[in-house]
Amino acid sequence: MNFVVIFAMAAGGSALILTAALVVRLLKYRTVENHEEHESKGFSLARYEPMARLLADEDFLFLRSQPGYRPEIGAKWRRERRRIFRSYLNDLTHDFHILHAEARAIVADSREEHSDLVGVLMRQQITMWKVMAGIELRLCLDRFGIREVDARRLVESIEAMRVELARFAAPAPVAPS
């Protein structure tokens, strides 16, 4: 068999496996398991600030420079950091689901003045899943040394949704009579 065909088959198989792993990971973020617990906390941007540093190279480089460092230590450290990062992602998607449900309730209860919110909600949901897919893909590739996982865009989009929700949820000012 031709080398190019073998390479193409291997690349296609790898892409298929990576896609399947990505879909399985994303499906884990679909439901809100403990709605009341997350709802009582409320959304706070500050709660997700540690995500920015969890997968940063600075800490890993420091660890690697320490006496007694072995590659197994670094591999375990990275695995644990990815696990913690995914825990934050899980909380973040729960917050998204709660905010999105609140926004859908506002749209359902509102008159025509908030009809433009339907399109905003759809775009936010699509953006959230696209960003989550990108993050999960990068987390999978992190195992192979391809780094640069950044959740800021996801956190910022959820914060924007929270601000937009607060704007729509606020009672309309009453005109003086």
Short description:
The protein is an all-alpha fold and 177 residues long.
Range of helix content = over 70%
Number of strands: 0
Give the helix/strand class.
mainly alpha
**Low-pLDDT regions:** 34-40
Element-by-element helix/strand order:
HHHHHHH
Q: Per the principal axes of the C-alpha atoms, what is the gross shape?
A: flat
Rg computed from alpha carbons, rounded to a whole number of angstroms:
21 Å
Largest sheet: none
Mean pLDDT: 76
- Total number of domains: 1
Number of helices: 7
The portion of residues forming beta strands comes to: under 5%
Distance, first to last CA: 85 Å
Describe it for me?
The protein is flat, with a radius of gyration of 21 Å. The protein has helices spanning 3-27, 35-41, 51-54, 57-64, 71-109, 116-142, 152-169. Residues 34-40 have low confidence and may be disordered. It has seven helices and no strands. The chain has one domain. Helix 5 (71-109) runs antiparallel to helix 6 and helix 6 packs antiparallel against helix 7 (152-169). The protein is mostly helical and 177 residues long.
